[in-house]
Design brief:
The complex is a heterodimer. Chain A folds into two domains: about 1-85, Rna Polymerase Sigma Factor, Chain: A (Orthogonal Bundle); about 120-170, Winged helix-like DNA-binding domain superfamily/Winged helix DNA-binding domain (Arc Repressor Mutant, subunit A), CATH 1.10.10. Chain A has nine helices and no strands. Chain A has helices spanning about 1-35, 35-50, 65-80, 90-95, 95-100, 105-115, 120-130, 135-145, 145-165. The model of chain A has no long low-confidence stretch (mean pLDDT about 85). Chain B is built from nine helices and eight strands. In chain B, strands 2-3-4-7-6-5 form a six-stranded antiparallel beta sheet, sandwiched between helices. Chain B has a two-stranded antiparallel ribbon with strand order 1-8. The chains are: A mainly alpha, B alpha+beta.
Chain lengths: ~180, ~240
């Protein structure tokens, strides 16, 4: 009886965790893949994997990086399972235009379109920092990079984005 | 002492540093202007990344555990086992995220207006005995890893007494209402009258509302994740 109650509580906690984090995970997967359908697939698969592996999550405060790792691996697996066709960036933008449109805010839509054009090596750390709220140390751990490398990528990511949007930027220089 | 190039490189990589820009920006008008432009861009970037991705339909959610899609390798024996009714129910609930407007969310927001003083940012803590008394009525206790609770009252909400807590997180105060009598089928997000938050179902235990306010409010998702690890229901 107690065991069943404990299991229900555990399930409820895991469910609440996923409910809380799923919207951001979906956004992260979308910015990674630039494909809403693929992002939904990746997050669904990731949550199933997380469910099966929930015992390995010792600290719920670590749930976000834990789930992010699962999402990143699941996204990588989609390339192992299936060679995704190369798609022109303008086609990607056109396909996801309903998602990218910023309502009545044209400037938001422009930033989103510029994000689509940013190379993945710059786009991913930027999304991890701005959307997911990770520190540069946490980003370095996620991406398997040194902290200076992360800082360089973040610097270049913003420079490229701002340049695409017609803003004056700081000239590139390695740290 | 750092020069302009170094300062700009640093804050471009980590704009959060610009909140305390230090001596250089204070003495360099050009870098101060650069900082303002960067922070304006950062605001647009943060808004741009917050896409409104529509929630999948409930029917789509229900088939998730069994769906082979077009990928190879998913129809494994363990995957078939994972399609048990319990797992399907959990995943369906997880994916079935609701929208903002519900009368429950509206009532939660309305309740916030009754106790504006509770939102103060403070270092003071509610005495443990008082907190325990408020929580006991709702058959709840908090594990010690919970952040500082600065406000705890038993409030009348929809004809029931419910614990109304304010937790001082690192990024500001967060209100938590333990709604043991409010069973909801799916999570509800809301953003009304300056209050943002989420009501999360806790199957068998009603639901929990987490509310923040202000433009620099804490990340609700993180707060919920931390909170659910700290709540225990008692008999």
């Amino acid at each position: 009886m107690n065991g069943q109650s404990g299991g229900n509580t555990q399930r409820a906690k895991f469910q609440a965790l996923c409910l809380a984090l799923r919207p951001d995970l979906l956004r992260f997967a979308f910015w990674l893949s630039r494909d809403r359908a693929l992002a939904e697939d990746v997050v669904q698969e990731s949550l199933l994997r997380a469910w099966k592996a929930q015992d390995s999550l010792q600290d719920a405060n670590a749930a976000k990086p834990w789930l992010l790792t699962i999402v990143r691996r699941e996204y990588a697996r989609t390339f192992e399972r299936k060679r995704l066709p190369t798609v022109d960036i303008d086609d990607l933008v056109a396909r996801e235009e309903p998602v990218l449109a910023g309502g009545d805010k044209q400037e938001i839509a422009e930033v989103r379109r510029a994000m689509f054009k940013l190379p993945e090596e710059y786009r991913e750390p930027l999304v991890l920092q701005v959307l997911m709220g990770l520190s540069t140390t946490e980003i370095a751990a996620q991406l398997g990079l040194s902290q200076p490398a992360v800082l360089t990528r973040l610097f270049r990511a913003r420079n490229q984005l701002r340049s695409m949007l017609g803003e004056e930027v700081q000239p590139d220089s390695d740290p | 002492m750092i020069h302009c190039t170094e300062y700009r490189r640093r804050i471009t990589a980590e704009p959060a540093l610009a909140r305390s820009p230090g001596e250089h920006a204070a003495s360099c008008a050009e870098c101060a202007a650069f900082t303002q432009r960067l922070l304006a861009f950062e605001g647009r970037l943060a808004a741009a990344l917050q896409l409104e991705l529509p929630a999948p339909s409930a029917s789509a959610s229900n088939v998730v555990p069994l769906r082979p899609r077009s990928r190879g390798g998913l129809a494994k024996p363990w995957f078939a086992m994972a399609a048990s009714v319990a797992l399907a129910a959990v995943v369906a609930a997880v994916l079935w995220v609701g929208t903002a407007e519900s009368s429950l969310a509206a009532d939660v927001v309305k309740h916030m207006a009754h106790e504006p003083d509770a939102w103060a940012r403070t270092d003071s803590r509610v005495p443990e005995a008082n907190l325990a008394a408020v929580l006991r009525e709702a058959h709840v206790r908090l594990l010690p890893n919970m952040n500082r609770v600065s406000y705890a009252q038993s409030c009348m909400f929809r004809l029931h007494h419910v614990p109304h807590l304010v937790v001082q997180s690192d990024s500001g105060p967060v209100t938590v209402m333990v709604l043991a009598h409010e069973n909801i089928a799916k999570a509800q997000h809301f953003d009304e009258q300056g209050y943002r938050g989420m009501i999360v179902p806790m199957p068998g235990h009603g639901s929990v509302a987490v509310i923040t306010r202000g433009t620099s409010a804490p990340d609700t998702g993180r707060v919920v994740a931390s909170l659910v690890s700290s709540i225990q229901w008692t008999p």
